[in-house]
Design a protein that fits this description.
single chain, alpha+beta, paralog of FGE (formylglycine-generating enzyme), 4-stranded mixed β-sheet, 3 helices, 9 strands, 12% helix
């Protein structure tokens, strides 16, 4: 695991940071506004996404999508991800912890900086072994936050402090999913989905083929 120091970081998106008119309000980052300084306590987070072979030790009969050693497990529900982390004496990271792990303290939009470069992360059609993309590494040396698989967090989908945007989906029934991921063939590619402030969400029982997880642990 990687130690992430406590303290403030730049959370969320500035108004107008992404403004393509054909995208939904969620995609343009309105659910990640206002951008603000946010403080987290120190914690540890897995350097890599949980791999299929690691997950098999917890659930030996699992037959999830993927299946090669070293590749991130995917198609797991939030409940399964949460149970695995607890089994490991860890927990899922909050979305705030996830974002600090990814962006550091300078508010970068991608793990490598502010300019999009698709080749820097696994945004292709299939998963790769964890850590295969050296440039998809955060300031704290946490890998695959911009690509490979999206990741469950512990957080429910709620508005940020002082938010103006109202989403009818806000509430305790949906869980926040973070990070860019491989692209399923039925979707077109949009770099906005890989931006580190992008907030997706899903019902906790769903098993999405582009979603996995990593674990965290409090430092205190």
């Amino acid at each position: 695991m990687v130690f992430i120091p406590g303290g403030e970081f730049l959370l969320g998106a500035q108004a107008g940071e992404t403004e393509p008119q054909f995208l939904s309000e969620r995609t343009t980052g309105k659910n990640a506004q206002p951008q603000q300084r946010y403080k987290v306590d120190p914690f540890f987070i897995d350097r890599y996404e949980v791999a299929y072979d690691q997950f098999l030790r917890f659930k030996p009969q699992a037959k999830y999508e993927g299946g090669m050693p070293g590749e991130p497990v995917r198609g797991v529900s939030w409940y399964e991800a949460d149970a695995y982390c607890l089994w490991m004496n860890k927990r899922l990271p909050t979305e705030y912890e996830w974002e600090k792990s990814a962006r550091g303290t300078d508010g970068r939009v991608f793990t490598w900086g502010n300019e999009f470069a698709r080749e820097n992360a696994n945004l292709g059609r299939s998963v790769q072994r964890a850590g295969s993309f050296e440039k998809d590494k955060s300031p704290y040396a946490v890998y695959d936050l911009n690509g490979n698989v999206a990741e469950w967090t512990a957080s429910s989908y709620l508005p940020y402090p002082n938010a103006v945007f109202e989403d009818p989906n806000f509430g305790g029934k949906l869980k926040v999913v973070r990070g860019g991921s491989i692209q399923r063939s039925e979707h077109g590619f949009m770099k906005e989905f890989a931006m580190l402030f992008y907030r997706n969400y899903a019902p906790p029982a769903i098993r999405a083929l582009d979603t996995g997880f990593r674990c965290a642990k409090s430092a205190r």
